[in-house]
Amino acid sequence: MVKNKIENLPLEWVRVFEAAGRLGNFTAAAAEIGLTQAAVSQRIRNLEGQIGTDLFTRQPRGVILTVEGEAWLPYVSNALQGLNRSAEDLFGKPLKKVVISAPVSVMQLWIASRIHALSHKTKYQISLRTMNVEGDFSKTKAMIEVRYGTGNWSDLRKSLLFNEVLTPMVAPRLLQAGVNWQELPCIAVSGPRPGWQEWAVQSGQVAPPVPILRLDSFVSAYAAAIAGAGVLLGSVPLCGGALADKSLTLLSPHRLEHGAGYWITSKEGKLPHKQWNDLVECLCTEPRSDL
After folding, report:
1. In Å, how far are 39, 142, 290 from 46, measured between CA atoms?
2. Which domain holds residue 140?
3. Residue 263 dihedral angles phi and psi, to the nearest 5°
């Protein structure tokens, strides 16, 4: 019997109750919703009759929530807020501009080569902003932020761009006859990725010499490796283009995989559902499996 009472509640009555309970006043609720005070009072009477309990205590100078009304109000408020968010997310008007913030390596070596597919089928502006300090999310106002990690952000909408996979690679011209690549100069990269020592431990290989060149961004190290500066512990997903055109070549079958990767993230409500799905479809493609 209680189930039938709840299922048959008109949404308008519930909305009126939420406004009156939140504002503590039938007149204020009427002004917010666009009804008369008498209409608000009538709808709440109808609601109370349907569920079989008083939600407000009427007093000469206003109303106050009953114990039952006070207990029910937060559930109603959360439900209506969720309904409003989902409606906006699914059916809301698309934003005219979408801002994406990402580390320079991901921006140049992953997003830039894929974003054209999105720009060809959308009518809104796409603004790409380089995140100078990776993980400095408190200062960015981007709708979409690219983050490195395992995806453990419960408060964010997220989708995996790619899992990070690292392995040694070098410009082919450095591989002269009889050269042991582990004796070539090594390039190191500052930042969150594991380095040469981690690769040696996981692969069981002898660690290469101490790197003579350390760069503060992967994209700089990538350019240095292509120029022949040494051996790079390179990201297979990010170096896909250079591996495909033979600017770089792989040196070992051992891959360093550590469960982390790069994700596009957004706070709930920042971006309509359709635009988020467009980005996921465009950017979250699998890296080449033949490299």
Report:
1. 11, 46, 67
2. 97-162+260-283
3. -125, 145
